[in-house]
Structure formats: structure tokens, C-alpha cells
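Allow me, if you will, to draw on your knowledge of protein folds for a short while. I have a record of one protein: its chain in single-letter code and its fold written as C-alpha cells. I should value your view on which stretches of the chain appear to form regular backbone elements. Thank you for your consideration; the sequence and its C-alpha cells are set out here:
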Amino acid sequence: MSDQLVAISFTNKGGFHFLLGAVYGHNDRRRRETLWQDIIRLSSLARHRHLPLLIMGDFNATLYRGEKLGGRPVPDQILSDFQSCLLQSGLRDLERIGHIWTWHNKAEVSRVACQLDRALGNSDWFRLFPSSVAEGLPAGTSDHSPILVRFVESPRWRARPFRYDNSWFLSAGYEETVAGGLGQEAVGTAQFCMVHRLKNAKRAIRDWVRALPRTSLQEKEAELRDLQAELQGDMMSGEMAAREKSLAAEVNTLRLQQEISAAQRAKCSWLKDGDRCTKFFYDVIRARQHRNRIQRLIGRDGHLVTDQVAIQEEAVQFYSELYHQTDYPSVFPQLITKTLITEYGNSLLMAPIRMAEVETIVMQADASKAPGPDGFSSGFYKRHWNTLKAPVLEAVQEFFDTGKLLKELNHTFLTLVPKKEGATSLADFRPIACCNYLYKIITHLMCRRMEDAMQGLVSRNQAAFIKGRSIAEHSLLAHELIREFHKPGGMKACVKLDLRKAYDTVNRDFLCHLMAAMGFSETWVDRVRECITSPTFSVLIQGIPYGFFGSSRGLRQGDPLSPYLFTLVMEYFTCLMDIAVHRERIVPIYSRVSPVVSHLIYADDLLVLLRPSMRGMRELAAVMEEFGQLSGLRLNRDKSKVYFSNSCTLKEERALELGVEMGDLPVKYLGVPLSVNYAKDRDCQSLVDFAQRRVEGWQAAGLSFGGRIELVRSVISAIALFWLQSIMVPLATIRKIESICAKFIWHGGIHAISWEQLCRPRKEGGVGLRSLVSVREAAGIKLAWRFLQGDSLWSAWMTSRYLRGRNFWVCEIDNNFSVSFKHILRTRPVLRTVLRRRMREGGETDLWLDPWISGQSLLEILGPQRDGVAYRGLTCRHIIHGGIWRPEEYRFTAALVEEIRQVQITPTALSDVWMWAPPGRSEGAGEFRFSSCYDLVRPHFDDIEEYDFVWGKGLARKMQLSAYKLVLGRLLTRDRLLRFGVSVPEPECVLCETEPESIGHLFFQCHVAWSIWAEQCRRHLGGVGRERDFREILKWIGDCRGKEQSWTRHARLRLAASVWHVWRERNRRIYEGLSTPVVGILHNIESDVLVMSP
């Protein structure tokens, strides 16, 4: 108990025990530090005793910047203190419902509201009470809303639909069961026969699963422990040793099954190189179930619904009405489209199906993706592909031949995913379609064939789902268009348009009519029509399907075909806008020297930029109205906003003409801040929050050191893929994110290895993470590379806006250039070292200014003083004749002529292109690779000698990382803890209890640890050396040149296993009060080496 936290222990008559912490945080940040330490201690107590813990109350602090409205921003240190507390304690928020803003200042003006009150639980709490919620009650006369934790009753049990489990193959009898089910043939169409096979397999698997013995992993582990204890009294018993080996194999199989099953349900695709993280997987599953559970809804009559049966009825009724067309036209005018698909393009769409196409789709699929109503995921198809490939190919080919889908094949489950926390309206849920995988094979094939056709059909204003187009470039172009928004040059307006229920309300008849107008063959349009009009639906509530209904409008989110079809629908908006611009009804902002960009589209995100005359605003409203009437995509006026330049007058009147509200810049577009100025640290707070939410403390508690590294790697990858290529993220923001990641890796404790060291490649003494500072530099080089390709609207706009006839390689940086273009120009010195020119006709390569000769230009090689030589306007075509270099007329030196002739010419009508050719690249020049670009800009260090030992093939991840820390001397032994100022009860080694503990002593000088290594040397390595230093032992292993390579590898495995088990034994004795005799440790090492050995 303290002045800010009261801990209460509850035990009921049945013996159930849990802890409650009541919080009243101090207003002063420094005094709240004791509260954070008290919470960490209480959480640690609950964790070690495996007790559920609930902590709730007024913390007087916010966790994220978005948890405060009005007033001054919350200081970073206050956020960091609370976040560090949760990182170390492993607590997370209960779902919040009701009054989310639990405190406000009651002022009529200058109102301030915060989320100061909350309820937090640990993993044991959520395991026992997965449906508990924290409800904010009305504040009444107080300035705080009370928090009431509710325990929502679980719905009545109902059988869940069949779901294939990827771990079943490890159980005896599985292969025979599936083979028997799939082998039962039927008479009928190919699709019917395929579905019949799957039904038989499902029935056989269900019966087999019911008959499996219910073997508990915990029971088997207990049985193994008892047997090993018994074995201590009779170590020479061969019978008991054989039984132990058999039991150990069963335990490992059960652990692997549990991990595979949990990983499939958790869908953590980023975790590919960590230890077994089953506990983490189950925590993720519970967190997702908790987040997606629908416990209350606002019904159609406006009243709150909490009864599960009523919730099910509301959901079925809502989506049944949503997917039914009401007032759409059935007759359409002649549609004007910009481009048509060619006859050759149509022939490619309907080309015969090849087995290789189908097999590639199946083998590249993510086996953890949710299955459709038949219950079979892509993992099932992968495992049994040899059996399934022939009937699958027949079913797919039948669809392409007949254009008919079996109704059962196109049934769909709708999974409802909340768009925001505490969603209570069905409009705030996103319906994700779970389609049968056989159907998805068909639509994936259709998507692959449409990709090339889409390239020419869809204008450059659209960037989503088109091969070769980038969301980052799309975002950059939006920033460029907004950059001069407030500068003189007339009135300007930017309109951010939101479409109401975009995918769900598409007029399917219009889509098919539009495709025909674009030149798609009638056969292909019929195939598309069959896919989008034949589905039936059931809604999943708490994982159980309800209802059965058809549909007459909309595209399914989750159907691979939907994004491509939606892009075609949005192309008609571009057609309408282009007509309005051509007829000067709408006047874009920039049009004189730059490509006309009246609007940008990314999926359903629309951005329109125009001169906001009254007529222009009316015309835009008319375009949206016409587009909505035909396509079904109506404007959501509540979420749409118009932003005017400072020079604009009569803003309210102009906004009224359009019918949307005014907003203020900056605004988020595609997830990043869109502003007239370069991004500042405060503008990028959402990026910091994104990183913080991805590495919340409860995840650290369930992950090993290796697992935390992999999660951080995925966070860095996500940031690098989009944010750092979309805007110039300030270095201050980068440092904050790196600090968050480092804290997460070390679980809020001592940073035994610096972030800079972790970000080195493995060969140079790191773990292969990427420094975001270096990633930022590499992202700039990638932008420069994309700019030089010149094949996007962004690069064309930048060229016309900034270069204006000047050569990119010699253009001086102008103060009027945007931040991103300045950044691109500053990368030129690096680009010269990695780019090589692929010469074709030479007409696009400046003879004197482009660095086409080994990264140098002729002007740089020869100098500026060349009498009688014209530098401007000449291209390499002037010295290429018949595909051969002819530079004689310029009287170059023989050495230079020879160097020119080394530049290869590929005679073709295509343009000259820049090729990515970094130094040391073995596969030659080619496409850009971010990994090689990052390697160019990162700091480089010497290789470590122990690389093969630490990261050797076959070594378990947990042992790699303990060996890694040992090599660097960063294991937190007691002597090092004392140096960090951490008090330890006693400095002696807990194994021998005679000498002070240090890294040097613990592993090989301690007689207990030495006996473990020496015994292994005697038994398996042919004798014991005298070396008792880690690096000397490694040298001894490496110096045994007479031994086979397999012996060296085996010796390293044993050394790493010994290090890990000694460290594990040391920690068990200190933190758990448990110990294992040397003979038991040797036995555990033997088991691990057996698993790791080939």
C-alpha cells in the first residue's frame, strides 16, 4: 500500500484468488514515479504467483498523445513514463466502452478532455476474463467519470464451424484419414466432384479428431519429470533410458503441435526466426478476440442491445439490407472511357489455364490465413497438393470454360472487424469476407491476368493495386501539390472526399457495363459477373455463423478480385473529372508547366485540387452526384472536408456549394500528415504512436529475447516501407522510435547491448536489425532511383516543376525546391557509384552531362575547356552508328575511346535506362534492391571471429542469442549488475558458491560449469583440452584441422548448448529457487543436441 496505490487480495470460498490495485495518481510527474514502480512490483508479484491482476483508477496520466483533446500537448516524458511502466509490467487496457473521455475541465470555452481513468489487466486476467470491459459511467457533478468493470456473460455454447488445423499432420493416422476422404470420387461436374472430395475429407477428419486420445502436454511433461527423477536413482537402466527418450519425443511433438496451432490462429507472419512463443501466440489470440468481440450494439431503433441473440439478429438484418440494391439505374448512358483493352489483351485473359499458374498461387499462399465456410485453408491445399492438383485444375478450368460457379463454392462468412475502439454501431465495423480457398484460387488467377491489362486501362492518377505504382510516390505528389497552397497565385482548394461504405455499395450492373465499355470481352465480363453476383453470406458473431442471405450490390472485402474491380469503377470518376477539366468547368491548381493533376485516387481515398470558383465547386458536386448515381458510391458528407488557401474569400459560401464542411491543414492522407510545410516532429506523433502500439508491454512479457527482436524488425520494416518513403520524417521522430524499440527489446530493463550494436549485420557483431537513421538515407536514394525511372505521374510532375529542361546531374539546389526534391538531389554522389547506363539508341542520354561512363560524365572526365565543342542538346545517339560506338569525330584520347566502347549497347527501340549496379553485386546490374541500398549507407565494421560459432547452421535461436551475448561479454552476471548500480544479495557464483560471479568465471572456471563441458568432451569429442577460457576453447575447436567438418560443427553445437544450459541453471537457482544436478543438466544438453544435429 502507498499513497497512490492500494493493493487488495481477493479469495472466494472456492479458493479463486486474484489481485486488485486501486490507483489515484499524483498530479506531479516526479511523485508519480513511485506509482509506476509500485505497479511494476505488484505486476511482478502477480506474474510469479500466476495470479490474475486488475489495476484501475485515476492515473492522472495519458498513454498516447491522442488521449487528450484541447489544451497544450502532453509532454513526451509523461507519455514515456507511463509507456515504460506498462512495458515492464506487461499490463494492457481492458476494452473501453461508454464514456471514453473520463475527465474534462467543465469549461464552456477552451475545453480540455483526457482519458485519465482506465482499467488494466495482466495476461492471467485476460485468460480468465476475456470478455471483461471497462465502462465509463456518466460523470454527474464530478469532473471524472467512474470506471465500472463488467464481466460480460459468455454466449450460450454452440458448435463452431470446422477449421482445418495445420498441426494435425503430426498426429498418428492423419495421412491415412485424409487420403481416405479425398479418395472418394463422385459423379458430376468438376466443381461438384471437388467439393464432394472436401466434404468427405472434412467428415473423415472430424471423426478422426474425435477419436484422438486427449493427451495433455502438461500431463506428459509431468510424466517426463517424474521419470527423470526416478532415473537419477538408476542411471544405468537401459529400459528407463529408452522410455525417457520416447517420452521426450512425445513432449516435443506436443509442444510443436501446440505452437503450430497457436501460430496459425495468432497470424503473426512476422515471427519467423524466434523461439517457440506459444504463450505469446495465445496472448495475441485472446487480445484479438477481446478486441473483435461484439458485446453491445446500437440497434436500428436507437436503443442499446446487449443480448447476444438480439445482436445476431441486428447484424444479419443490417448486412442483408446493406448488400441489397435499392434505387440503382438498370439502363446506363453510353460511357466514355479513356483507353480500351486490346484484342491481344483479351486473348491473354482467356488463355488456357496452366498447372504451373495454379501451383504458384497455392504455394505462395499464407497458410495461416482464415479459411472460408468449408474450413479448409491454403495450408491444407499445400500439404495435399499432389493429391488435389488434378481435381483443382479441372474445377478451375471448368469455371473458365462454362462461366458457372457452384453456389456452395461461393458461400462467404463475414467477419466483422471494428474500425475504432469501443465501436457500437454496425456502420463502425468493416465486413471482411472469408471465401472458400478453391474460389480464391480462381479469382487469384483472374487477378494475375488482369494485372497487365490494368496498367494501360487505369490512369496515372490512381496508384492502388496497379503493378509498378507506389503509394509512397502517390503520397509525395499530394505533398508537392499542397506545398505552395498558401503562397500567392490565386485561390486554391483541396477537397478530401470520403465514400460511404465504398466496397459494399458498388453497383454491379454499372461495373459490368463499364468493363464492356473499356473493351473487355463479353466472355470475361460474364466470368466477372458470375464471381460477384453469385455469393451468399452468413455473419460471424463470436466465431459462429448466423443467417443466410444473398446480395444484389457491393464487392466483398477479402475477395482477391475486388480491389481490381473497384479500381475500374474509380477510373470512371477520373473520366468524369477529365471531361470537366477539358471543358473548363473545373480548373486545376497547376496546369501550365506541369502535368494536369486535378485529383488523386488511392483505393477509396480521393483528393481533389482545384480553383474554388463558385462554378467549380458546383461542378465538382455535380460530378460526385453523377458518379454516385451510376456507380452506387455516394459521398459521405460527414467525413468529407474542404481546405482553402489563405487567399480564398467567401470560404463558407464555397463550402456550402460543395455541400461539405471546412477543415484546417494539416490533415492525414493515406496515413501521413499532409501539410503546406515540411513535416515536424509534432506532425509525426501518429508514427510514434504506431510504433508504441506495435510493441506494447504485454507482448514483451510473452516473447523471448529473439521474439522481441523479430517484432521490432517487423516494426522497422513497416515504417521503412511507407513512412520514410512518403515524407521526410524528422530525425527527432526517428530517435524516439528507436528508443521505443530498444526499450521493448530489453523489456524496459538494462540495455546490455546498445541499439547501434544491435543494428549491425550479424557478421559485424549485431543481430541484423536496421538503423532507422540509415533506412531514412536509403529511402532517399530509392526515391531518387524512382525519379530517374520517369515512369510515374510523380516523377513527371517533379521533372516539369523543378528541372524545367535542366539536367538532373548538374542542377543546383534551389531554395524554392521542396524538401523531398532537395533530398533527392543530395543523393547524387551516391547514385553515381551504383548506377550504370544501359544504352539502347542513346537518344535519352546526355552525351556530356549524364554520368554514363563508369559513374562519370564526359564533362567531368575532360573538363569544361573544350574549344569548338557544343555541350547542350547532344545525346549519345550522335556517336552511335549501327549499334556501334563511333566517337572519332571528337578526338578523344585512345584510353577514353576504349572506356566508351566498354559501355554495352543493346540495339532496340526502347529507351535508355539506368540500372542498379552496387559495388560487389555478383548477379550484375538490374532492378533496385533496398537491401543493397541500405548496405551502401549504413556504418561498416570489422567482422567478428566468432560468427560461425554464434550463428552456425542448426543452432537453436535461444542458444544463438545467449552465445551472441557471451561473445560480446554482455550477459548480466552479478559483477556487471553491480557496475550498473543494481544491488545483488551476494556476489558469489550460485553454482560453486566460492568465487565472485563473472562471465569468465561462470562458464568454464567454475568447477560445476567446467565439469559439464569436460564430461561432454570426454564422451563425445575425444578428450578434454586444458583450455578454460571461452575464446581459447573456440580456438582449440577451430585448430583441430585433422578432424572432419562435421566434428567441428558438432563441437560448436555442444559448446553453445553448454553455455545456454549453464546460464539457464544459474537463472533458475537465482530467480526460481530450483536446481538441477550436473547429471540432469548433461542429460538436457544431450536432448537438445540430438534435436539440433542433422
User: Anything to note?
Assistant: Residues 238-266 form the longest helix (29 residues). The chain has a mean pLDDT of 88. The first strand starts at residue 5 and ends at 11. The CA atoms of residues 460 and 793 lie 6 Å apart.
